[in-house]
Design goal:
Length: about 120
């Protein structure tokens, strides 16, 4: 795709407002509010391939190979908080995540994200 530059794209990210009662510090007991990403639809590998295939010059097979390799080498898992070491088991693990440390050009692209905070309807 001639002239296409992923790093110049602007991406819109929707966030909802959530609340939490602070349990410590000088705001203990106070209800605090924070922005949290809105639920996004979960995409299957096939759906990801369909969407990226239409916006990228790589072949569908190349995209799939890269995604599968990425998932195999970058997983991160963390356990839920438990009361004792004996309670920590495979069943108490939270779903695995992928965490990346982006290069400068990706960080620059991420800095262009536009945000929309969904205000609650009263």
């Amino acid at each position: 795709m001639l002239g296409y530059n992923f790093f110049s794209l602007t991406i819109m990210m929707n966030l909802d407002i959530k609340s939490k009662v602070s349990k410590q510090g000088n705001r203990a007991g106070q209800t605090l509010y924070y922005a949290y990403p809105s639920k996004r639809e979960k995409l299957s590998l096939e759906q990801v391939l369909e969407r990226t295939d239409s916006t990228c010059s790589l072949s569908r097979v190349d995209i799939e190979t890269a995604l599968r390799a990425f998932a195999e080498v970058m997983p991160f898992a963390q356990g839920k908080l438990m009361n004792s070491p004996e309670e920590v088991t495979q069943e108490t693990l939270q779903p695995a995540k992928v965490i990346i440390h982006p290069k400068k050009n990706i960080r620059t692209a991420l800095s262009r994200i536009k945000y929309h905070i969904n205000k609650a309807q009263e």
